[in-house]
Amino acid sequence: MIKIIDRNWFVNYTSPNRYSLAGITDLVLDHSERLKKFKLTVIDVGCSTAVSLKELKKELNSKGIGTFTIGIDVDPKVKEMAEKNSDIFLNKDVLEVDNLYDVADVVICHKMALWVPANRRSCIISKSSQFLKLEGDLITDVDDYRQPSFLESLSNFYKYSWPPIHTLRYGIKNFRSEYKKKRDLKLRKDARIFYGRETSLKYAKQIISGWNKLAWDQKVSKKFDILCIMIQQKLFPSRPKN
Fold it and tell me: Over the stretch 138-183, which tens digit does the pLDDT of each residue have?
């Protein structure tokens, strides 16, 4: 099972508005304002077709922020689109990229390292952090395996997953739209920012620490989840958007 899941297994195509919905665009704008930097180099790790990166650049440019974009993705299926949508595209496994140290103001690693084992997850975050300039920011949704309390889990389920209140309030016809609003809220909740290269590198180590604290049955459950997601994506692959 370990050999099956410890690799790049499928392509998860992105969408143009994903970074806007996830709040990542706002986080990059905050970085620019906080450091008074109006020329940014942004690296997108696991960029897929880089259409989200293209839209991010368009939004930043409209705010007067010059942006140079670098996309990284291992899958050859996205190469043609990604080359059109980014200034530089590297069709490589991020762990094999050795020429981007200390070049990025912002590195985005979103929906890329969630469904891989802990060691690989930590290595991806560590490598992404090394691309940052000293004051650069890492934006990611990769968690460190911290287990929420029962009340936290219940609250998160109510806020982000279960829409009966909205269904009753707005009617059955609006069920789908209200559910989508909750999903978008969760996207924003999951995106987090780490200020500075050293903080980001520390987080990579924290991921391993969090994994080691899990009980054996929790570890088995996490690995089984990865396998299920991979099979799902293999059976029902998403389609590229350019």
Answer: 999 999 988 777 787 777 676 666 555 555 566 666 666 666 666 6
Distance CA 130, CA 103 (A): 9
- Helix, strand, or coil (residue 203): helix
236: exposed, middle or buried (Cβ count in 10 Å: 0-12, 13-18, 19+): exposed
Tens of pLDDT, residue by residue over 171-199, are 666 666 666 666 666 666 788 899 999 99
Alpha-carbon distance 66 to 142, whole Å? 28
170 token code pair: 């707005």
The model carries a pTM of 0.84
For 171, list phi and psi in degrees, rounded to 5: 95, 155
- The span from the CA of 142 to the CA of 208, in Å, is 12
Angle 154-160-166 (CA atoms, 0-180°, nearest 5)? 105
